[in-house]
Amino acid sequence: MTMVPTIGRELSNPPSDGISNLRFSNSSDHLLVSSWDKSVRLYDANADLLRGEFKHGGAVLDCCFHDDSSGFSVCADYKVRRIDFNAGKEDVLGTHDKPVRCVEYSYAAGQVITGSWDKTIKCWDPRGASGMERTQIGTYQQPERVNSLSLVGNRLVVATAGRHVNIYDLRYMSQPEQRRESSLKYQTRCVRCYPNGSGYALSSVEGRVSMEFFDLSEAAQAKKYAFKCHRKSEDGKDIVYPVNAIAFHPIYGTFASGGCDGFVNIWDGNNKKRLYQYSKYPTSIAALSFSRDGGLLAVASSYTFEEGDKPHEPDTIFVRSVNEIEVKPKPKVYPNRAV
Predict the structure, then answer these.
(1) How many whole angstroms separate alpha carbon 126 and alpha carbon 93?
(2) Could you tell me which of 307, 311, 180, 183 has the C-alpha nearest to residue 242?
(3) What is the β-pairing status of strands 237-240 and 231-234?
(4) Is 76 helix (H, G, I), strand (E, B) or coil?
(5) WD repeat positions in this chain (predicted)?
(6) Strands of 9-10's sheet, edge to edge?
(7) At CA 35, angle to CA 245 and CA 288, rounded to 5?
(8) pLDDT in tens, 31-54
(9) What does the alpha-carbon distance between residue 7 and residue 301 come to, in Å, rounded to a whole number?
(10) 3-class DSSP state for residue 220?
(11) Where are the alpha helices (DSSP H) in 225-283?
């Protein structure tokens, strides 16, 4: 494992309050950022240019792209919005009964999926005219408040409070195809599906990540494991930091994790090893996203109030160039084996 000294360059005009999420576009280096300052911002990450901003009626808890200049946002004001930066307009797809925590757009199904603290997920057709009765496809009850969503192909993973994990096929949403309990003992912070569609990684407040597989066969389930990360020993005590963010590299399938310790680590999940650790960021890592070709990593350095209300560093977005050596899996070495 090697430490890389640089933390990247700061983007100008960052949000003025906590950053809830950031995501790169699938077709450019545009970066969409949601914040507790009630804003959704679109940046050109390469040019360090703020291309547009929308202000909502409450803290924006998540966002995702639709195309290169439009997307969706969900908010503490219970609303699900479609936002178009080129046209400079927004409209409301519909509402939940409580704050909406997360949003994903399925290119496979052409649907927006939202998860809320009202213990439901909802699916929306953004091609419909404005208004909930014309855009809402379905509502699906969850066992607890929804904390995180992730999509790969037609598969949707829903992680809720109470350590519940529901796995759906978007084509058959009447009930989950699998109901699971998290392998980790404490509250889930983030779930992200593997790019190859074989499973998902789950992180928690206890400084751990678990690697899970969809296949229920004995052989597949034998491959799952959990590991400790974002911890340090101090005065003989083990200090544990929540793992807030996971982002998979789109080419190599390795992944970055970000914790409240201010560090970003790069992991080779298949070979169970840490590849790199970047120098410490000013405060907690709230969100991470790789660009479409894996050449850039966006890092939200933003205090997540894990130690309550206290003076903290400003909320900042860093964009760093990613070297292949940092994210490419290393070949296994077999000593004493003839080549």
Answers:
(1) 7
(2) 307
(3) antiparallel
(4) coil
(5) 93-125, 243-277
(6) 9-10, 316-321, 296-301, 285-290
(7) 25
(8) 999 999 999 999 999 999 999 999
(9) 10
(10) helix
(11) none
